[in-house]
């Protein structure tokens, strides 16, 4: 699996990128034999459609890649990425009139199309390689692709090989690679150091709960990332039905997303002070599992009534967020596969985020559009605060009624944070069907948008 561009200066065949609406004009400038070949092949320049051009010796002399229409491009991100899988082995160079943003999307999409999760089975990967087009930052795109691949690998790995121990190993390996400081609090030490809700969620598992903590960088603004690391979620005593448990290896998708983003930040050497916090647990069932209607006292001192043991992600995040907030970072972000309600509202492809800071929201929206990493602002709707107040305790982890589930979960998390620039992502972390540059399975969401917006919001 190669997620890098071909070496600079490599001999390359031309890959002409042509809009469907401009195909006739483009053809009129080509040699008559080439026009006849392309028309005979029935090439219409549909999005991602490829037509090889024969050379005098029978080998390909180049290819034409369809860009479709404005309408089809609006309906498919990374549509040109399919060329990486459809072209034969060789080195290719784009011949295009793309805008800078479209060119960057095409180049990054080509790299991501090469991703394969091949830990357990050998999978064929594209053999066509792309020369980095002029006008892009090739090293930056390669760093982004590598970070995305880390996220996907972590999510795709089943819980048998990606429990709290293995997530810790991946976390520490990343820290060592970039010279970051790291520490881990495990098992009953969580109680001794005042992380009672992380402990309560993970104590029933044979694999001890823990809090992973990484610091990197010595100057610049402080950015803290908190990722939900529930390595498998049975639902606890409120056990999930089998149909709902089938994808629960991905319930650490928030942790995977922040680790992928952290790798991007460190690989690019951004001038900031980065902290990454991951509560890593398995929500299992045993005699010491937390029970419905138990009341937990959090790190922050707020009491929480447990009305559904399957709403555990917000509990582990709450303790980690309380710790993060004690330092008052310049930007505090949490990422979690938190609620099915977010999927009902926005589907699998669009990641909702919550923030009270309009500047952060605007910067995120602009950045997401530019890098084709779609996000959508949802409201911290304060009038719904009463829905998470059970009366017998300060907070309810699972309000009855089923309304506004993603919003009430976000409001729950906000109770543990004073930082006005706190931003929460309720991601899905999974690509349910094959799409350009996104094979079925684990996928990053929101990380590229955050990376793009950091210079403006964090003052880099």
TrEMBL record:
InterPro entries: Leucine_aapep/pepB (IPR011356), Macro_dom-like (IPR043472), Peptidase_M17_C (IPR000819), Peptidase_M17_N_1 (IPR048816). The keyword Hydrolase applies. One of its GO terms (molecular function) is aminopeptidase activity. The keyword Membrane does not apply. Residues 308-315 form the Cytosol aminopeptidase domain. Gene3D superfamilies: Leucine Aminopeptidase, subunit E, domain 1 (3.40.220.10), Zn peptidases (3.40.630.10). SUPFAM superfamilies: Macro domain-like, Zn-dependent exopeptidases. Signal peptide: none annotated. It comes from the Bacteria. Keywords: Aminopeptidase, Hydrolase, Manganese, Protease. Belongs to the peptidase M17 family. This is Leucyl aminopeptidase family protein. It comes from Halodurantibacterium flavum.
């Amino acid at each position: 699996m190669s997620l890098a561009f071909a070496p600079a200066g490599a001999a390359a065949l031309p890959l002409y990128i042509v809009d469907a609406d401009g195909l006739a004009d483009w053809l009129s400038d080509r040699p008559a034999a080439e026009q006849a070949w392309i028309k005979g092949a029935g090439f219409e320049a549909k999005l991602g459609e490829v037509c090889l051009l024969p050379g005098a010796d029978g080998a390909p002399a180049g290819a034409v890649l369809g860009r479709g229409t404005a309408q089809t491009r609006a309906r498919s991100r990374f549509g040109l990425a399919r060329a990486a899988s459809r072209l034969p082995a060789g080195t290719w160079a784009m011949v295009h009139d793309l805008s800078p943003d479209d060119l960057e999307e095409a180049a990054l999409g080509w790299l991501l199309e090469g991703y394969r999760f091949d830990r357990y089975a050998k999978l064929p990967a594209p053999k066509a390689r792309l020369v980095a087009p002029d006008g892009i930052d090739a090293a930056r795109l390669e760093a982004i692709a590598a970070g995305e691949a880390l996220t996907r690998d972590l999510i795709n790995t089943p819980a048998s090989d990606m429990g709290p121990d293995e997530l810790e190993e991946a976390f520490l390996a990343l820290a060592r690679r970039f010279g970051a400081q790291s520490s881990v609090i495990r098992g009953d030490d969580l109680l001794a150091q005042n992380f009672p809700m992380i402990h309560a969620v993970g104590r029933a598992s044979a694999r001890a709960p823990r809090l992973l903590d990484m610091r990197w960088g010595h100057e610049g603004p402080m950015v803290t990332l908190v990722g939900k690391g529930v390595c498998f979620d049975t639902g606890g005593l409120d056990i999930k039905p089998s149909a709902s448990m089938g994808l629960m290896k991905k319930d650490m998708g928030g942790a995977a997303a922040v680790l992928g983003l952290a790798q991007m930040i460190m690989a690019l050497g951004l001038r900031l002070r980065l902290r990454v916090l991951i509560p890593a647990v398995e929500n299992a069932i045993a005699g010491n599992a937390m029970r419905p209607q138990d009341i937990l006292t959090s790190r922050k001192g707020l009491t929480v009534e447990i009305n559904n043991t399957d709403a555990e992600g917000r509990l582990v995040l709450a303790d980690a967020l309380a710790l993060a907030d004690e330092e008052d970072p310049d930007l505090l972000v949490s990422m979690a596969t938190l609620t099915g309600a977010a999927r009902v509202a926005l589907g699998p492809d669009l990641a909702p985020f919550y923030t009270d800071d309009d500047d952060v929201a605007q910067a995120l929206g602009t950045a997401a559009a530019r890098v084709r990493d779609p996000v959508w602002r949802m409201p911290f709707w304060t009038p719904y605060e009463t829905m998470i107040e059970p009366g017998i305790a300060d907070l309810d982890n699972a309000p009855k009624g089923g309304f506004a589930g993603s919003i009430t979960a976000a409001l729950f998390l906000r109770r543990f944070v004073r930082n006005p620039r706190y931003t929460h992502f309720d991601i899905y972390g999974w690509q349910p069907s094959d799409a350009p540059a996104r094979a079925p399975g684990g996928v990053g969401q929101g990380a590229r948008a955050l990376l793009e917006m950091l210079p403006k919001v964090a003052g880099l």
